[in-house]
């Protein structure tokens, strides 16, 4: 569903991604693990078109999107929940979710979104800026799902969120896959969360993928070493 081949990107003359290659299948969750500054957010911004690729190829469902602008990538099936969530604080929960429906054929919020995140239904008239960090993260995911994506990108979804809400988000991501069979790519530093949601785990270091393992074969001690060096 998502094919990334020899992808390089950077900021000005500084290269931050170096030949990244990986695939993510339909109905699969992939975790990109790594410490701060190792290239996770740069990778996600490049996949979404916020940052242009210097070289390489990105394809969704066999269709190349490498040179497409961000809004065209959304139309072709990518949804992005950025680090820091970026919800609209002055809009209500319901209005925030509706922003994901702007290009949809049906402008009604799907019932399953509120079923996945019951707290959002309870707070649908509340301003986004008045939600807790964990509730804002659930709102950001709900807004992304409203676009009915083939591929959902989540950049550091557990950052600054209390452990009980992290568990709620993990359960919701597992449920989303059951309901929709979509591809999920998540960047993460919390290993327990990645082990709860991901089928395969990659480690990025210095803008390169340096490790890959299926969840069942993952040496958690080795991953922790990468995360703590």
Note the topology.
Blueprint: E1 2-11, E2 14-24, E3 29-33, H1 40-48, E4 53-60, E5 63-64, H2 70-75, E6 78-81, H3 93-98, H4 111-116, H5 118-122, H6 133-145, E7 151-155, H7 163-180, E8 183-188, H8 191-197, E9 200-205, E10 208-214, H9 220-228
Parallel strand pairs: 3-8, 3-9, 6-7, 7-8
Antiparallel strand pairs: 1-2, 1-4, 4-5, 9-10
Instruction: Catalogue the unreliable spans.
Output: none
What structural class is derived from the secondary structure elements? alpha/beta
What gross morphology would you assign?
globular
Mean pLDDT: 90
Total helical elements? 9
Work out the number of β strands.
10
CATH class identity: Alpha Beta
What are the salient characteristics of this protein?
229 residues, alpha/beta, Rossmann fold, six-stranded mixed β-sheet, four-stranded antiparallel β-sheet, 9 helices, 34% helix, globular
Could you explain the architecture of this structure?
The chain is an alpha/beta fold. It has one domain: P-loop containing nucleotide triphosphate hydrolases (Rossmann fold). The protein is 34% helix and 28% strand. Strands 6-7-8-3-9-10 form a six-stranded mixed β-sheet, sandwiched between helices. The protein is globular. The mean pLDDT is 90.
């Amino acid at each position: 569903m998502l094919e990334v081949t020899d992808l390089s990107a950077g900021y000005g003359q500084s290269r931050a991604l170096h030949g990244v290659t990986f695939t993510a299948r339909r109905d699969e969750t992939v975790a990109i693990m790594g410490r701060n500054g190792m290239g996770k957010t740069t990778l996600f911004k490049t996949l979404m078109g916020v940052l242009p690729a210097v070289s390489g190829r990105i394809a969704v469902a066999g269709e190349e999107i490498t040179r497409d602008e961000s809004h065209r990538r959304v139309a072709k099936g990518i949804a992005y929940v950025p680090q820091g969530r970026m919800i609209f604080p002055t809009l209500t929960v319901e209005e925030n979710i509706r922003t994901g429906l702007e290009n949809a054929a049906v402008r009604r919020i799907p019932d399953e979104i509120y079923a996945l995140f019951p707290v959002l239904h309870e707070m649908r008239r509340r301003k986004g800026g008045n939600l807790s960090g964990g509730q804002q993260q659930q709102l950001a995911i709900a807004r992304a799902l409203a676009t009915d994506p083939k591929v959902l990108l989540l950049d550091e979804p557990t950052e600054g969120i209390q452990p009980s809400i992290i568990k709620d988000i993990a359960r919701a991501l597992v449920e989303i896959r059951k309901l929709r069979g979509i591809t999920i790519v998540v960047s993460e530093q919390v290993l327990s969360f990645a082990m709860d949601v991901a089928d395969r785990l990659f480690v990025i270091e210095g803008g390169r993928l340096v490790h890959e393992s299926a969840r069942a074969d993952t040496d958690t001690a080795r991953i922790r070493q990468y995360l703590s060096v």
